[in-house]
């Protein structure tokens, strides 16, 4: 592992010895991962390697068989009461298909976290929510539509608007650019990078998009064989000799994307 | 800005105060110096502080961020909005970190160019909304009746094709639905019929005893159950159980695009999903009606024996004497027709589902309500018809 353990108080996410199991199937067997504050970490791995499960474990949605997960210094499974509420206030989550509440309009969806954690009057909530919707790249008239009336890409953006509602310190994204057109995906990449630099946001994303990995992420973690096999700065990971990483970044698609990166520099 | 730049201000201190100092600046300008935490928590305070900025457009507006403790996008939104509304000829953003200045600039570029219109609240003539809703409901009801008829038509056109190719008959789903809609409903239908049969006997006995005609209780129970109650009870229970199940099953398949997947593969959803369900009901409901009839009569017999001293053998003798086969037949005749109505409505509502979870719930409810309504309406129609033709 190229990752030198950081001083833990600085870390936004600490995963130690995580083991998850579904029935007899072992998904993770001793995953160790540290995400520093301000990092934009991309988690990659083959389909079915447990990337999404790892993300869900970081959110406290999966009960690990062993190990612990701390986000912003809070143990996500054991925290209760005020500590847990504080964590919920400081994180934002975008699920794979947006996970919008289907009975509410987009605007109402974005207002749900705002209502939960603030006591602002409706007028201000509306204004903040509309800004989020614009920031996520949706047209203004999308605010009053129901999730069922949106396309998949628009649902994803609306989900991002909701994830950003509270100006979180840490953002979890599950395949943020999957299903978006290249222009939309690039805009989303740029938005995440801007937010990360302007607000000091920490971002943890599961992605297959080589372009977002290379343009947005500052670090990459590779999940293979039930563990994190390598985690480090983007260039270091690409240059590493791990066979799976080699195939991933130096296969035909990876070569095209990395070539673009070299030319851009 | 590259993401590797040092992170923006530490956001750990969360004091809940923010303020704005307004001082004149050079060149007939004005200087705004926000201080404290301009974040989501202090948004209301920030808005109040900015209320004092209203006035004539200044020539130069200097936004001095140097005394800010924290700034997030919500706070930046307030500042950007106030800057927009102040309409300065020139704007200069000073102080603060690079990230904070970039944030204010980014939000300025993203807010609406002018104040948003007040929330749309249409002022209507009183009662107009109610009228409009009634009108919309009537139009929708008419359109849905049309679609339902169209559905029946499409279903009928699949039958000849299916009749020609017995290999395509959906036997396995048919049997599965027969079990779920028929066999699994038997205990409930039986128990309820037993109890209603008993209640009918008690009511009849109470009334007929005044005329010394207790023995006609047997006529009442047999006549009512065989002609009406048996089939009606079975149909209403099946409508509650199966119409809802059909609508929910097909509806969630529709919302998960399974129906579309079938059509793309050249599988007719009517043939695969609707026909086996309706066929299962057409076979199950007459059988359930027989069960209901039998247990209704049994309930009547038990109550007669306990309360009226009509022994079971007397009950049987009286039953054979008073009741003709045509009563049983008219009851049974209605069962397949009710079954078609229930299955048709359940499956149709399932296919009307669009998108969200709420739609599945709404369509399921509508399936049950309409199925029960249709059964009772059809029963009333049959009662009059059969009386007129003397059956």
SSE map:
The complex is a heterodimer of chains A (265) and B (391).
Chain A: E1 11-22, E2 25-36, E3 40-45, H1 51-58, E4 66-71, E5 74-75, H2 81-90, E6 91-94, H3 106-117, H4 122-135, H5 152-163, E7 170-174, H6 182-199, E8 202-206, H7 210-215, E9 219-224, E10 227-233, H8 234-239, H9 243-250, H10 252-264
Parallel strand pairs in A: 3-8, 3-9, 6-7, 7-8
Antiparallel strand pairs in A: 1-2, 1-4, 4-5, 9-10
Helix pairs in contact in A: 3-4, 3-5, 4-5, 9-10
Chain B: E1 18-25, E2 29-38, H1 43-51, E3 60-64, E4 68-71, H2 73-86, E5 90-94, H3 98-110, H4 128-164, H5 171-182, H6 186-209, H7 216-255, H8 258-264, H9 269-307, H10 312-322, H11 325-351, H12 357-388
Parallel strand pairs in B: 2-3, 2-4, 3-5
Antiparallel strand pairs in B: 1-2
Helix pairs in contact in B: 1-2, 2-3, 4-9, 5-9, 6-7, 6-9, 7-9, 7-11, 7-12, 9-11, 11-12
Give an account of the 3D structure:
The complex is a heterodimer of chains A (265) and B (391). The longest helix of chain A is centred in the last third of the chain and has 18 residues. Chain A is 40% helix and 25% strand. Chain A is globular, with a radius of gyration of 18 Å. By secondary structure, chain B is α/β, with parallel strands linked by helices. Chain B has two domains: 93 residues, STAS domain (Transcription Regulator spoIIAA); 221 residues, no CATH class. Chain B has twelve helices and five strands. In chain B, strands 1, 2, 3, 4 and 5 form a five-stranded mixed β-sheet that branches. The longest helix of chain B is centred in the middle third of the chain and has 40 residues. Chain B is elongated and about 115 Å long. At the A-B interface, helix 4 and helix 6 of A face helix 1, helix 2, helix 3 and helix 12 of B.
């Amino acid at each position: 592992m190229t990752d030198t353990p950081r001083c833990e108080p600085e870390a936004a996410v600490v995963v130690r010895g995580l083991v998850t199991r579904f029935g007899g199937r072992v998904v993770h067997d001793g995953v160790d991962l540290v995400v520093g504050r301000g990092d934009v970490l991309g988690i990659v791995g083959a389909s079915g390697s447990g990337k999404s499960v790892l993300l869900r474990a970081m959110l406290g949605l999966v009960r690990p068989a062993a190990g612990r997960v701390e986000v912003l210094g809070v143990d996500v499974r054991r925290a209760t009461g005020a500590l847990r509420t504080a964590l919920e206030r400081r994180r934002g989550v975008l699920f794979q298909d947006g996970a919008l509440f289907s009975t509410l309009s987009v605007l109402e969806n974005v207002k749900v976290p705002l209502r939960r954690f603030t006591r602002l009057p409706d007028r201000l909530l509306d204004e903040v929510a509309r800004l989020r919707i614009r920031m996520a790249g949706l047209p203004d008239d999308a605010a009053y539509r129901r999730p069922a009336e949106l396309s998949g890409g628009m649902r994803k953006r609306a989900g991002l608007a909701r994830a950003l509602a509270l100006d979180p310190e840490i953002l979890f994204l599950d395949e943020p650019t999957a299903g978006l057109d290249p222009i939309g995906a690039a805009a989303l990449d740029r938005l995440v990078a801007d937010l990360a630099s302007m607000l000091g946001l920490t971002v943890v994303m599961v992605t297959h998009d080589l372009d977002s990995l290379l343009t947005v992420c500052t670090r990459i973690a590779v999940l293979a064989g039930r563990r994190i096999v390598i985690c480090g700065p983007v260039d270091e990971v690409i240059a590493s000799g791990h066979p799976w990483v080699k195939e991933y970044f130096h296969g035909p698609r990876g070569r095209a994307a990395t070539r673009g990166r070299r030319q851009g520099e | 800005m590259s993401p590797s730049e040092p992170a923006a201000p530490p956001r750990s201190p969360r004091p809940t105060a923010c303020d704005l100092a307004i001082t004149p600046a050079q060149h007939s300008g004005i200087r705004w110096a926000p201080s404290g935490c301009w974040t989501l928590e202090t948004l209301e305070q920030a808005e109040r502080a900015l209320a004092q900025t209203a006035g004539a457009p200044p020539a130069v507006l200097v936004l001095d961020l140097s005394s800010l403790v924290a700034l997030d996008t919500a706070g930046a939104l307030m500042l950007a909005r106030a800057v927009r509304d102040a309409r300065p000829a020139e704007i200069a953003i000073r102080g603060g970190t690079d990230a904070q200045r970039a944030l204010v600039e980014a939000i300025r570029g993203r807010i609406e160019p002018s104040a948003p219109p007040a929330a749309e609240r249409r002022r209507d003539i009183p009662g107009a909304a109610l009228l409009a809703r009634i009108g919309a409901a009537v139009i929708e009801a008419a359109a849905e009746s049309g679609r339902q008829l169209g559905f029946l038509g499409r279903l009928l056109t699949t039958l000849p094709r299916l009749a020609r190719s017995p290999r395509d008959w959906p036997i396995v789903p048919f049997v599965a639905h027969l079990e779920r809609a028929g066999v699994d409903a038997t205990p409930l239908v039986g128990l309820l019929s037993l109890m209603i049969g008993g209640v009918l006997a008690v009511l009849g006995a109470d009334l007929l005893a005044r005329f010394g005609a207790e023995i006609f209780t047997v006529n009442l129970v047999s006549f009512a159950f065989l002609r009406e109650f048996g089939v009606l009870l079975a149909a209403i229970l099946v409508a509650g159980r199966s119409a809802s199940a059909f609508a929910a099953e097909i509806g969630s398949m529709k919302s998960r695009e399974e129906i579309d997947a079938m059509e793309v593969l050249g599988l007719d959803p009517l043939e695969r999903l609707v026909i086996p369900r309706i066929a299962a009901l057409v076979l199950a409901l007459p059988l359930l009606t027989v069960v209901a009839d039998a247990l209704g009569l049994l309930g009547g017999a038990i109550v007669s024996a306990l309360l009226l001293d009509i022994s079971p053998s007397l009950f049987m003798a009286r039953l054979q004497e008073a009741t003709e086969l045509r009563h049983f037949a008219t009851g049974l005749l209605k069962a397949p027709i009710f079954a078609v109505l229930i299955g048709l409505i359940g499956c149709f509502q399932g296919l009307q589902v669009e998108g969200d979870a709420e739609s599945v719930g709404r369509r399921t409810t509508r399936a049950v309500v309409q199925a029960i309504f249709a059964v009772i309406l059809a029963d009333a129609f049959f009662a009059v018809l059969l009386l007129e033709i003397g059956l």
